[in-house]
Amino acid sequence: MNNLTVKINKILLISNGHGEDLNGSLIGEALKSIEPNLTVDAFPIVGEGKSYKNKQISIVSPLKSMPSGGIFYLNIINLIKDLFSGLIGLTIKQIITINKIKNNYDIAVAVGDIVPLFFAYLTGKKYYSFIVSTSSYYEGKLKLPFLTKLLIRSNRCQIVFTRDQYTADDLQNQGLMKAKFVGYPIMDTLKTTGKNLHLSPEKPMIALLPGSRLPEALRNLQLLLQVCETLVNISSENWQFRGALVPSITEEDLNNIEGWQYHEGVLSKQINDNKVSVMVFHDAFADILLQCNISLGMAGTAVEQAVGLGKPVIQVSGKGPQFTYRFAEAQMRLLGSSTITIEDSQDNQIICEKTAHKIIEVLGNKEFLAQCVINGKERVGSMGGSLNISKTILSYNASKLTD
Fold it and tell me: Are 115 and 16 spatial neighbours (Cβ–Cβ below 8 Å)?
C-alpha cells in the first residue's frame, strides 16, 4: 500500500427505469454540488433519460423507449412487446457502448436492479449499488437473485445503498455489512414552488396522480375523473380536486376527454345540480402533494413521495402496462398502511363507488391519518437522501488508499 488517496474525477450513473433515472439524476446533481469539477454522465438503459436531461447531465447510452417502460417482469406480454420493439438489439448496442466508454470513468453508480448492476460490473471499475427497486418490506426478508447477490458481494462493489433502513438491517443480518441506508433521493424533489393552487383552507383537497407515461396516464386520468364525479354525487362535502399532470398530457388531450369541458386549466362536468371541477397543473407536482389531504394514485414514484410526506394514498388499479392491480398490491406491501388499494373489477363504476366511499372513510379517521405520518417516515424517510448518498460515495473514496 502507498499513501496516495484515490482521486475521483469522472462518475458514470447507470439506471433502468423512470424512478431509477430520477434517483440517479438527483444523486448526480448532488455530486456536482459537492464537487463542481466532477464529470458526471448518465447511462439510462430504459426510456429517454428525461430526468437526466432536465438536470443537464450528459447521456452516453443509446436510447430507445420500450412499450413496457422497463416493467416487463409483471407481465410476459409486456416482455414480448419489448422484444418485438427491438429490446435485444438495444441491449447489444448498450453492451458494446459500455465497453467502449468504460475507461472514461473512475467509478460507476448502479441505480436499480440486476441490469444496471451488470452494466456497472462490465465497466471493470469499482462501483456503488443503490438497489432502489427492491425492499425487505415486500416479503419480510430480501431474497435477491443469485447473480444480484454475486455482484453486490463482489470486491469491486463498495457500498450497497438501500431505499429504507429495514432493508439495510436485513441485508446486514444476512452478512452483507456494506449495506447502508442514508436516505431516499426522491423526497428531495418535493420543494414548494409557491404555485397558487387556488385553495380554500377549510375544504379537503384531493390530489390526482395519474402517472407519467402516455397513453396510460391519460386513461388513468379519465378513471380518476370518474372517481371525482362519483364522490361529488354521493357526498355533500365541498371537495377540491387538483391534478398533477406530466407535460406530455397536452391541452388537446384534455379537450378530448369525453363528457368533460376543459378551459384554462380546469376540467368541469355538470351532474344534475352539482358541478365537478378539477383544476390541473403541469408544473405544480410538489405543491399539490404538500398541500393535499389525500391522494388518488395510479403511479409508482409519485405514490411513494406522497407516503413519505405522511399522506394517505388510495390506489385505483388501471389496465396497465405499468399501473395494474398487481403493481398496486406490491406497492401496498412496500409502503405499508398509508396505501389502500381498491379491489380490481372490470366495472369502472364499482371501482369508483368503492374509492369514493373509502376517501370519506379515511379522511374521517384521525387516528389513521396520524399513523400515516409515522408510517411515511419509516417506509420512505425525509429529505436529504441524494446529498447523503453523494457525500458517502465521495468520502468513502477519499478514505480509500490505492494498492
Answer: yes
